[in-house]
Amino acid sequence: MSDQPEPDEVLEDEEAVVRLFEPLARAAGAFALKDDCAILQPRSGTDLVLKTDPIAEGVHFLPDAAPADVGWKALAVNVSDLAAKGAMPSAYLLALSFPSAPRRGWVLAFAEGLRQAQEAFGCQLLGGDTDRRPGPITVAITAIGSVPRGRMVRRATARVGDSLFVSGTLGDAALGLQLAKDATRAAAWGLSPAMARHLCARYHRPQPRLALAGALRAHASAAMDLSDGLAKDLGRMCKASGCGARVQLADLPLSGAAQNAVDADARQYKSVLAAGDDYEILASIPPAKEAAFRAAAAAAGVAIALIGHTTVGSGVAFTGFDGETLELTGTGWDHFAAGRGDGPGSDGGGTSAV
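Request: output the structure for the sequence above.
Response:
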């Protein structure tokens, strides 16, 4: 008879939960999670960049999501923000809230997803807390990164006439969410099994564009990650920067899977424009630096696409395939809009907070 604990064992003791995260906290300042505070010593000549972006069951991940995917996503969405600032992650703090005592197997799988993510992104757990309270499972991570002193890329510093670039492809995660809720859409969209897996992976395991951080520091006038949809996030950048923008629908980069979906159902362009969870980077690049930025992105192995330009005035205009300006009924995810139903239980697509 095995002495190993059962995966479905209920962890009634908070210390039993904490012990499962000790292997993730090997940095000297983490004190193996045996203290109630941690120490982080920034390297000389750098600034610390801090980000907190929580995720919650039923809003950012489905109730039946694999716990390893939840762990990966919880860290990835925060690291994505650091990447857009031109920062590299070094450490993070974790706060976990459960509505009831968790099962050992769930916590172990969640911790494994975190381990995979922190190894991929180059950071370590420093500490945090766990608690029990009413409501869904929530995961709050505070990610800590660093940039050369004074070099963090802001989102409020775009200039009129800048070129607007996005990394990767848009809309995949929102389409993946739809597939996670209704697998029959794969056939309706004409997707191969590999295409369907691609879309689902983009939703469950976003990939922060850390390799682009250096290019952003060197060439971008402004940047931010795309968490709540291109239309909404570009609008935020423009409002903060005091400018407008015009984007060509034909220039938006789509994966082969997303192209199949929009060819089969043109309404899915809403997923490209106004749904979230892409965690790609939106960058505003001065024209004089455009060629150098393209070269730096290529050297980093990150695909980028020119989608439009910043303009005089305010607001964001999208030009359709017919040359006419599109009228959008919604620009993206809003946590506080009453009655929207845009979370994982609906077709709108949920995203994490700003």
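Residues 338-354 have pLDDT under 50 and may be disordered.
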